[in-house]
Amino acid sequence: MSSAAIFPPPPEHMARLTTLVDRFAGRLENRLLRASPWQVVQVSTREPIVSFTFDDVPASALDAGATILEADGVRGTFYISGGLAGRVEPGRTMIDLAGCKELAARGHEIGCHSHAHRDLRHVDSETLVEDLARNAGYLDAIDPRSGRRNFAYPYNSGSFGKRAILANAFRTCRAGGEGINRGPTDPTFLRAVEIRQPQQHVLGLVRWIDALIADPGWLIFFTHDIAPRPTPYGCTAPGFRLLVGYALARGCHVLTVDAALDRMGLRERAP
Questions:
Q1: Phi/psi class of residue 268: alpha, beta or left (left: φ > 0; alpha: ψ in -120 to 50)?
Q2: What is the pLDDT along the chain (271 residues), one digit of tens a residue?
Q3: What is the reported pTM?
């Protein structure tokens, strides 16, 4: 055997490489999804609309996030994964059934974030249908409704093969994409801007509100926990309060996702 023989890399290196390749594939699929919309609706550009949304949802999104919104007389959209209910994770505890019911009672919108909170690219269609039905049962016990809910992709990761299922089941599906929804828009892959650490990044997000005032449309923010020491995917209460207050001070209509759709005349179809 040659002294230059090549040995396989350690398992931890292979695992890291596999993760990087999967992330790249996910970003590529998201770009392709945006380039080939499944549906197209016209998002109004007559006035600036902002929606504040929460994913997963940590209990602090109720304790701090909902309270901040309510102090300014507005409400948010909370995308719930029933399978995460009450789970204790590093840096955060997930909202439980009682907390979800409190959100609904206080006038916030309850949306779907799947039940198992898995990347949809790695879930087959039959499993996804079963998962969505399970989460629908969980959410209907919290907030019964006859119309379709709104959905947010776990990990903001779309899937070509699942679009028909999602389009039929939900009024809209929100991803990421760092952009404002204006004019022709695919409701199955709405753009949104993340509110996350570091704090300097959070404070800089006012530029998106300024851009919305200059060229109206629908700006959707999303975050996770709100705490004095947030996870990398959350923000502090002062940072969140600044964004809500700034949006209102600039004259934006701050609405839930459902209310924003209604205001733009994008009515829910008859069941």
A1: beta
A2: 455 556 566 665 555 655 556 675 668 888 888 888 989 999 999 999 999 999 999 999 999 999 999 999 999 999 999 999 999 999 999 999 999 999 999 999 999 999 999 999 999 999 999 999 999 999 999 999 889 999 999 999 989 899 999 999 999 999 999 999 999 999 999 999 999 999 999 999 999 999 999 999 999 999 999 999 999 999 999 999 999 999 999 999 999 999 999 999 987 764 4
A3: 0.92
Per-residue 3-state assignment (H helix, E strand, C coil) for the chain: CCCCCCCCCCHHHHHHHHHHHHHHHHHHHHHHHHHCCCCCEEECCCCCEEEEEEEECEHHHHHHHHHHHHHCCCCCEEEECHHHCCCEECCEEECCHHHHHHHHHCCCEEEECCCCCCCHHHCCHHHHHHHHHHHHHHHHHHCCCCCCCCEECHHHCCCHHHHHHHHHHCCCEEEEECCCECEEECCCCEEEEECCCCHHHHHHCHHHHHHHHHCCCEEEEEECCECCCCCCCCECHHHHHHHHHHHHHCCCEECCHHHHHHHCCCCCCCC
Domains of the chain: 11-263 (3.20.20.370)
At 245, list the tokens.
């207050």
